[in-house]
Protein 1
Amino acid sequence: MRRTPKDQRQHATVRDWSRVKLTCVGVFFALAWLALWSRAGYLQIVAGPELAQQAVRQHVASEVDKGARGEIYDRTGRLLAKSVEIEALFVRPKEIVDIDKTAAFLAKVLHMKEQRVKKKLQSPSSMAYLSWRVGDRTAAKIREAALPGVYFTKEFGRFYPNGHLASQVMGFVGVGDVGLEGMEKSFDTRLTGRQAKYVVQRDASGRRFFFDSQGRELADINGHDVRLTIDSQIQFFAEEELEKAVVNNNAKSGTCLVVHVPTGDILAMANYPFFNPNVGRGISPRVARNHAALDVWEPGSTMKPLLVAAALQERTVKPTSTFNCENGKFGLAGKVIKDTHSYGVLPVNMILRVSSNIGAAKIGLQLGSPRLHAYFEKLGFGRPTGLPISGEGKGLLRPLKNWSVLDLATCSFGQGVAVTPVQMAQAFLILANDGVYKPLRLVADPDEANPQRQPYRVFDADVARTVQRMMREVVHEEHGTGRNALIPGLEIGGKTGTAQKAAAHGGYGNKYLGSFVSFVPAVGPEYIVMVLVDEPEPSHYGGVVAAPAVKDVTLRMLSYLGRMPETVQLAKAPAAASAETPAAPAAAAASGGPSRADQEILAIAQSKPATAKAVEVHAVPDFSGMPLRRAVEILAQKGIVPKLEGQGLVVNKQSPAPGAPWPGDKPSEFVLWLSRPS
């Protein structure tokens, strides 16, 4: 079929348009490639250096990381303080959209005053913290609200898992993880985590590279740990018995110290009232104060064993030396020194046993001011012990040149010289350590935190042992003022103290501090237990208010340590024994009424029935407050598998009761009731 001219013209037109389309497509792609290459050339050649710097700023950044605060442990490795990661809430005021709405919401969920929150939101600074510790539920509510300008950040908060246990020793930290009291302050530099500046790489999501398994940079920036000599279980016993002593005697406060003689380690340092260091606000400085190391007091009669040791060391008296106690009144330098009892001639051991002020004054006068003052200095009075406690008191020991004859006499029975409880514990540690000075220790690690003083001898060993035996008489012999500390079957030595407190207007008032210091055992002691009860009422005698607490702490401590003897002496008194009281001396009978000493002996006798007869039996120790594991270990040694009642890991009560005979025939009847630690 032949094409007509018309068909040929139409075919040519179609071919012409196809050529145009192909040309246009080719031109478009050519221009596109030219544009891309031009852009690439611009980015690589012209803008390349600037873009490279921007990439570095986005993917490589300098950041500051702060390590966690170090932890605090007791001597057995039990945790006393640690840092936990918490969420802190802060705002950027310039990003707040609706100040009134934001302030109202945050005030409600944070339980803060709205005006205070609004003031933070209107702060001229770039950022302001609202709360350093926000709970998980509260944080979830705030996140759900999605308020502009409100942010969270991770901080470290201090947590004390045992609540008030050793609270005055531990102290607490403030805002910014800064130690404010106690060990937290003393070791703040060691405990505080260090800051490290890093150049880190980020991925597209902003996550950092090169982390360890815990998500932290590969560098040790955490604070260092501290380990104390405190045994948290013995500390618990000390605090519980101290609280009973203060509350039961309507006292103001109290202190208890337990010292391990062979090492000088402080196993317990308790102060009452307690406080919870987990509650950062509203802590009274007086309650948070470590009274055992900061407060000074006149020791009273607890000074007498140290006086006797000094006099025996200087050979100014012998154990058999006698002194006329003037029937209770002794005039000296225009003043009258009084005894609480009318005594005649007494040997040195009886002066200590019945706590005669006049006898002690005459021993001091015979010793002389220069020598007594020198012994006070050797015992550590007038200077801090060196324990790592911020602001430790140094006591009050006036210069020798300011001493009068009356000062010599009164200092001999503990008036006119002031010491801290730890100073007194240090002095008795010398006496317990057979006369050799050994520094007290409160920190096991780092050891360099302890006083680096060289041991030196203060008393000969035979002198120290002689005084130790005299202190045994205070507890075990008739008319001994420390008989309330007696644990039948255990050799306990001790000394009571009933110190009259100075009045604000001068002189002495009608407030007292009752104290008791004990050696366990009496001769060659392994432990020192000391209790002070401030302003007890109505009775203020150390033998009544402090000695029972010492006894209970000792019983629980020895039971916990598994050191209770296999046999003890259990008292058995006749029915009328509770009505018996020690016979008063003839001088008191002649006076027509009981003297102050008679009242003290009467109070002691009424608080503890007289012992008429003792029989040797196998006795059950006191397991209350003891960890279940330790109690089971002790019972297993007796072949006893106890029956457990309740839930928890701490023994709450027991059957048979403490002091009862071991259930030899029916060991299955031994029951321990458990509770969870409070």
Protein 2
Amino acid sequence: MYPVSGAFMDAIESNTRKYYWTGTIVTKNKKEYAFGNEDIVKGSGYITRQCCGSNEIELGTVYAAEMGITLFSDIDRYTLDEAEVRIYFHLVLPDGTEETIPMGVFEVSEANRHIKTLELKAYDYMLRFEKALKLSASGGTTYSFLLMASTECNVELAQTKAEIEALMNGKETLGIYSDNDMESYRDLIFYVAQVLGCVCQINREGKLELIPYGISPVAEVTSRHRYDSSYSDFVTRYTAVSSTNLITEESEYYALDPDDALTLNLGVNPLLQFGLKTTRARLITNILNAIAVVDYVPLDSTTIGNPAFDPMDILRFSGGHADEKQLSCITSITYKIGGKHSLKCVGKNPKLAAAKSKNDKNITGLLNQIEAGKIVVYNFVNASPFTIGSSNTEIMAIAFTSKEETTATFLAEILFEVSNDEVIETVSGTVTEDSENEAGETVPITKEVSFTYPKIGESELTVTYKMNDEEVKTFYPKKTCINGKHILTLFLPITQVIANSENTLSVFFKMSGGTLTIGESQIRATISGQGLVAGIGDWNGRISISETIDRIPIAQTAFGYDAFTDTAAAIFPRLVLRPITQPLTRIPITESEFSYHRLNERVTAVEVIKTFTMDKDFPPHYDQTVVEVNEDGAFCMISDYVFVSSVEEINAGQMQHLTVNTEPFERVEKMEVTMC
């Protein structure tokens, strides 16, 4: 909760309140625009912050806050890319004074111009951590990792070294090795916050802050402050955590006694993979103790609003159907500028965990295993029938994931039935008949005759492969089909599957001269190979819909035109050349006095620690307040050097006698470093 006065809390909870919102926009070229209540389109402004997803309590989260607003403004939208927006809430107290609180710092990601208004969408500084992390192996304390991420991504750290070390596992030394899946600094601070038993938030001043779960309520929300509320009939609690050990490739389970509530799955944390087994057990047990304080009632509530509330604030709800003996934690909050506020506390029902055995919990979160020489198979069976004609129709799509660079094999067997189109065939020939001539004699007469009859033709089936939506243009299997039932076997070697990639193989059928019908469950296909990841069986949330539109005939239309009338003329303009003369007299250059301003001189010195050696007499760490990492990634002492020189006016005639007094030279250091 943002620190406010008691008068603010009394005024915000009173039956009537007087307030207004303001803000500033600062572009990248430092041009500032201010706006107030009268510039905000009513009902358009909002700020959304969250620390958990929509289902359950989480650790280490790095959600970015979102701000949206529409202004009556003529600011050029092209100047607002990455512009900084600051929002403020002003509350008028009963004595006539005002108390102002900041509502956040945001960077514009999208600006849309309407006729009279400007629509902005912006996010806080959490997106700055989406910067590539080039860190293959490293070690240090949790504070050193956070400080490095903050420095590299230009986001100030809200907490001091002492405050970070006071958190759970705050004084532990962690290690990162090359075998990790961290791609950005956002991933790094996520895993560090998970080790500390916290979530990450960008506070209202734009600083990175790590917040643990708590049990002390900051305020009470009574029934007269709520428009509507929905409370769960259970309390979310955690008594166990599971974490995957990358070395042993199994999930480890840590629980309190009694273990009668939910289990939090930490997954694979790269900072918890190496070191002694006892060290890993101590770290994860501390994380368990940090999450064990969670004892919250999930809820959804719409309130009159208190802009001082933040995610991770503990509230007590009373009155109506609320249970004032229980607590809730704000996991998501939406501030509506000039309107209602929405609060949410998520959580799962711990009663559901009682149905699971300990073995079930150990299975949860198991690593997708990959072993040398192990062949992983992905299966496919069609769930619906197909009727295929002359248009390319997708009959299957198999998604598979590779952990390393490898090859795979596609095999399929398809049962289908073909109904060919009828064709009309014409046969021509001659016949000889006897006929009487005028004399009554019988003579042979030859006639040309032709007749037609229907015939069942043959159809051609064409198979097309697409890998990741790219058509395989070097291989088109074809099959000539007659009327009846058929069996088709397909084979395709898949080469050069890159490491750590998700791929999709699609197969398309096209039938010319007939119709092909595939029944339900009549396609059986597999993709198999070494180096593929097993256990990826959950639906990925994608729904693919395709529709085939046959050729649309366009009837012939007569082409016509009106008469053309045209005229042409050639005109030669008269070119008149007029001479121009300009006399110039001699330009005299007179003697001018030469002068210059006073000269000031500054001398700076920089010391860089290229090596940092420690032995048993010195602890394996350094003080972050006196040693820093410069822009080149080297250690250096934080020192100030001050040079004071005398100032003397120098005339033109004294240039040959120019001297600079360099006394005194003063050096001020902030530290003493003892090195081996």
Protein 3
Amino acid sequence: MRKLLRLFTVIGCYLALSTSVLAAQTLSVAILTTGERQTDVYRQAFSDFEEQFNRYNVQLAFYNDKDFKRLLPSWLESGEHDILYWQAGERLQTLIEQDVIQPIDTLLPKIELQSAIQPAVFKSVSNQTGTYALPFSQYGWGFYYNKAMFKALNVSVPTSWDEFVALCLNIKSQGANPLVQATQEGWPVLAWLDFLSLDTGGEAYRDQLVSGQAVRNQDSKTLLAQFDQLLGDGLFFAPEKLWSWQQALQAVERSQATMTLTGQFVESSIDPLHEENIGFFPFPKKNGTSKGEVAPLEVWIVPRSARNKNKLTDLLRYLLTNNTTHATNLDALPVTNEDFLPRLPNERVKRSAAALTQSSNLIQFFDRDAAPSLSQNLAKSLASSIHSDSIGPLTDGLFQGRMSDFEVNLGSDIAVLPQLYFASLTGLKETFFASNLMQDIYRQLGYQISVTRYTTLEASLNSYRFGIDGELVRVDAYKKLAPSLTKIPEPLANVAFYLVCKDLEMCSSSLPKGSEVLVTNVLLVVKTWAEENHLRTKRYESIEALFRTFNRSSKGLMVLGASEIIDNSVLLTDSTYRTIISVPLYHYVHNKHKELVPLIDNALKKYKATERYQALKQRYWLQHY
């Protein structure tokens, strides 16, 4: 009898232990992460859940973007994971239509979800048949800007599109670079299409755009005209460089550019040394009634095939209740109705959150709603328009539906040379000779160069306050105006300037004092020549405007550079011209790069002995000097 009792005791202990083990319910969660910091935040959140609800054991699996999206279809069929990370918009809608995800409001009461989640966010994950995802974070988009540059340039945050365009032109006129745009990855540049489409035709037009149905309509014409206001004046900094979003942010931090359009995900990448100097403002609207904002939304979904979907209520409620903490730890915005503004980390995030909470219409990012082929082509078209400073490529892609061959995505295995940035004045074709020449010289030395062109001498000189590395090409007298620059001793070439006359006699003799001479630039040598000869100069913004005035006058006078003579020879058949100035042109580098001076000087001397140099001179009509 005692043996029998002892046996029952052992069996009872075994059953009690088994019950305890079974009570620890295992749940599986698969998450897409982009970095170690995100992974740590997720681990901590689910660890806190296990501590609070010790009857659960949560197994986490982390994947990069490519692997997660590759494996998602099989997980939805197999039920291997109980909860999956996913993204709202068309990507969520597709899963709803495929009927592969469990409505969340079958696991948590709909009234509980609706009362806890912001209305616009709740709308993003619901339809007439149910609520299909649990939102957990969103992040806004807008302009991150350099506060110190705004102060130095005496400008303020714009509140409308017209103010924004005027701001960009003002910044450029003072010698700074208004905008830098990430184009390397392709997708960041699409934010322009999201905002401009909402501003142009609201959500209806934006829906047409992402579905590929907006070709050749009036709203597309309006969008193109609006973006075109930012093109043609060199407002985008170093557009030929394929900036990653991290590099674009660094350009703003370093005062190389004033603003960049980007998402709140950059918060964790802001250098702590620049934290207080980086501000944020929402995308300025042209249409005052437009209330739409871009706010990509992250969600949790439950596969219909999940093995433990009926045991997820505690975890889902925990994630909803602790949303503010989890979202802010991910450098994102919460999605709940609670007053979380005081808990946000800085003014940038608070301004972004305020814009989103005031918006009646939150949309997902363009590439989350559009077919991959469409979003990729329009990203290339946008990047190409920025690169060429022309609306043409975007018009071809958006209005004509033409496929772009512009390459925007650099592979990680491609070596990127360090880049230097040079200022130059507009209005003289010889600067293009210099940019071709110096591109070759710097490439030999292991650098790439970018040229930012300014319309005034003052703006060019002022650019050195904002990190410009030197002056592309100037005459020798320039060193008196720019003591922070060092001249490369070897000249790039000699350049000739010509006095063009309607009257042959005027060109063959001294000009009467006070004569008016038409010019298209404010070059020092031309200014000095005019002063020495007691002449007045009148500047025109373009060669076309100059010729119109010159041709209307019977005794017109103007000064042109060598390449301008050859470019416009057809227009000069009834005129005569003579050389008035012949000067050497020099390249200048900032004193911070003094160690490059002998290297550049030596490379330039060797290069001038090559056929490539002679071909460049001939191309720009400098072969006689």
